[in-house]
Amino acid sequence: MKKTFKMIDLDCANCAAKMEAAIQKIPGVNEASVVFMTQRLKIDADDARFDEIMKEAQAAVSKVDRNCKIDL
Amino acid sequence: MLSLSRQGEHIPVYFSKNGGFIYMEKLRRLYGEMTRSQKKDLHRILTGAGIFILGEVLSALVPFFDGYGGLLIFLPAWLILGFGVLKEAVLNIKNGQVFDENFLMCIASIGAFFTGDYGEAVAVMLFYQVGELFEHCAVDRSRRSITELMNLAPDVAYVRRDGEIVEEDPADIQSDSIIVVRPGERVPLDGVVVEGSSMLDTSALTGEPVPRSAVPGSEVLSGSINQSGVLDIRVMRPYEESTVARIMELVENAASKKAKTEAFITRFARVYTPAVVLAAVLLAFLPPLILHEPFGGWIHRALMFLVVSCPCALVISVPLSFFGGIGGASRRGILAKGSNSLETLSKVGTVIMDKTGTLTKGTFSVTEVHPEGLTEEELLEKAALCEYYSGHPISQSLRAACVSELDAARISDYQETAGHGVTALVDGRKILCGNARLMERHGIQTPEVTHPGTVVHLSEDGVYCGYILISDELKPTSKETVQTLNRMGIQTVMLTGDSPASAKPVADTLGITRLHAGLLPQDKVDLCEKIMKENAASGKKTLFVGDGINDAPVLMLADIGAAMGGVGSDAAIEAADLVLMDDNPRKLVTAIRIARKTVGIVYQNIVFALVVKLAILVLSALGITGMWLAVFADVGVAMLAILNAMRCGRIKE
B269, A14: Cβ pair inside 8 Å? Predict the structure, then answer.
């Protein structure tokens, strides 16, 4: 499933790059891109585990910047 | 007070020789654009800076403040400026993020405190904070300029329902509903005018400043602004398929297709910070151990390393540049599907152009009239009358070229022979109108015509009256486009299915350097492949531009496929990397210019930032520069890179 989410309070470009790398490593994620300029997360991941994956993605995001939230 | 208007915003102008007041006004506007937390940061920075300056002055004048007494002033200043950074650093370490910029800045400035230079410690925090604030404001601003662009779609549409006008969300409106658009409003959905006439401003879609007229029957695109009259429009497509929705999706998606440079910089940043930190550690401990010197001086130098270890300026300036470029292009009616397309576009060495529909209008019109024994108008009128009932494109162009009113009552005995032409009685006289074969059949001599295009001969009661030349007209900007491309050092290639004899003069008029005529659709793909191979050796890219009809395979194959006037064609939008919203080939030049400028700025920024960072590293390792200068240079580079990035997308036409 491909989906786009809004990112809230994503404030630094380098953090966005770190988040992208971290989310891509989550098992079941085929492709992920965190775009700092549009504050978006585009993710293509397995349907079966999608909700779980999104939780893990949020954890990965929080680890880089604890103020940043994925608008689910 | 005068008022200047630029892009819809009013900038008051005061009479002032030095322009100082204008800057005040600008600053006030910038301040107004800040978010609440940014304003809070600004106030904090100003307070901290004030105390810092006070401290510097006092420590220079009063001996008491030059020693430990300075802590009385500098410590509060440091806390005001750096408390937030310190807090972030601690919380991030708890989260497992050790080498983040907050932490590094804290180490650098706390280290400076311990080496006894209090002013320096505060300066590190001060400049770091200034840089951060500036970065946030710049990014916000550039993001806002794109969001404005995305504001193409109105939130409500007015629908006629059972004689009443109801307000509805455009997304809920179905095809064939009738919507009402009043002057000043944006058209919410694509449709056909059923009532009313007006002028439409389509500049947001196509970048063309000239308004288009809309009368019953004309197609209107969502996103254009109705300027003068009330229009009733029958909706053609639901919202998701409308022009506006498609454009917004394209622009939004563009940023997620990252350019190679961007990927490179992110990878670089991942290595850069740890490497610099490691170097700092080595610098702090190795030389003193080897040279048996005191640690203090070397630790101080190492701290300066930490100051320049944050790659953020570099990381932000690349996407900011591409974003600016994509935004600037879309304001001119050029949609780039990604940062990567912009990057490839800057390296284009060959532009392959389809003839029909790209360089020419793709519609046939009368280009020359050669009457014999009567006037041009008479010949055209006879031809138009004779072809009155025919639906052939040639007949349509004949009727379009005729200025006088055509009266159907004058025509009788109409007969059409496929592949030849038509015969009819006009005002009781027998008119033959068609190609040389038709004339031959009726035993009428025709002159040899060598001009490119389609020739229509005409005879009246067996007497030859002359011929009319019909051809596909060149677009007014085609010649300029080809010549500008040639001047830019780009090879121009024209592909066409027409015969070489008729294509050659066109290529010559335009100044095309290479012509391939008489091609079948499959040949175009092979040819494009061949040209790409030729270019591959020199690292140049190949661009193909077509009108999106029948050329999707070539659009896909080329390094860059540009679809022209392709808003209406799904296939073209899918296949192309670049969509030129109007039919103007000139936009291609604009697109390449924007791409070249953007990529140029990206490289400038990368080189500039790396050189300055490296210089600071070398100077601080040698102990030549102070920490002051190091922070200042680092923040300065970030600012300049961001300002430079904001120039992308602004080009002179």
Answer: yes
Report which of residues B38 and B26 the model is more confident about: B38
Chain B contact present for A31, CB below 8 A: no
Residue that terminates a domain, selected from B474, B508, B538: B474
> What ipTM was reported for this prediction?
0.75
What single DSSP character describes residue B432? E
Confidence band, pLDDT 50/70/90 cuts, at residue B564: confident
User: Which residues, in sequence order, are CB contacts of B640 under 8 Å at separation 6+?
Assistant: B608
Q: Name the β-bridge partners of B491.
A: B350
Instruction: Work out the minimum CA distance from A39 to partner chain B, whole angstroms.
Output: 9
Q: Read off the pLDDT of residues A6-64 as tens digits, 9 standing for 90 and up.
A: 888 887 777 888 899 999 999 999 989 888 877 889 899 998 899 999 999 999 998 88
Domains of chain A: 2-71 (3.30.70.100)
Residue of B142, B270, B312 lying closest to A13 (CB–CB): B312
Q: Does B258 touch chain A (CB under 8 A)?
A: yes
Q: How far is A50 from chain B (nearest CA, A)?
A: 21
10 Å Cβ neighbour count for B220? 23
- The CATH number for B184's domain is 2.70.150.10
| Total Cβ atoms within 10 A of residue B50 | 12
Q: Which of B224, B219, B269, B272 is nearest to B244 (CA)?
A: B224
Q: Looking at residues B503-528, what average pLDDT do you find? A: 86
B582 and B513 part of one domain = yes
Rounded average pLDDT over B638-653? 81
Pair (B348, B486) in one structural domain: yes
Higher pLDDT, B5 or B49: B49
- Residue range B399-414: average pLDDT? 78
Hey, what amino acid is at B158? Y
Query: What's the Cα-to-Cα distance from B634 to each of B234, B275, B319, B629, rounded to whole Å?
Result: 58, 17, 19, 8
Top pLDDT among B431 and B347 is at B347
| B311 part of contact set with chain A, CB < 8 Å | yes
Q: Tokens representing B399? A: 């009727």
pLDDT for residue B520 is more than 50? yes
CATH classification of the domain holding B504: 3.40.50.1000
Same domain as B459, residue B413: yes
| B463 lies in the same domain as B401 | yes
A2 touches chain B (CB under 8 A): no
* Structural domain of B481: 336-360+475-594
Residue B131 lies in a domain: no
- Tell me, yes or no, whether B306 lies in a domain: no
Say yes or no for a CB contact (<8 Å) between A37 and B315.
Answer: no
